[in-house]
Amino acid sequence: MSRRARHNSNDLRELFIDSTTGLITEHGLSAISARTIARKIGYTAGSLYNVFQDLDDLLLLTEGRQLERMHAELSSTIAEVPQNERVRACARLYMRFWL
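RE: above sequence
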């Protein structure tokens, strides 16, 4: 596979995280396996284990990224919305984000 020569360890890490995020978004957490994630980006499951300790390590990092994104969006929402509308705006954002 020619992709292997084009990606360093950090690039590969990001590809795996992005692939995992996409699969969870499209099919839910039950669709996650090392083989499925790796296949989506043209690598083998063994490649995943060269970059991450295990599948749980990848899932924790993926979830952490999503929480960071949600935090950034909540922070900007709070800054942009009048004080009396903040709770509603944050609740709507939270529901939209997780759905």
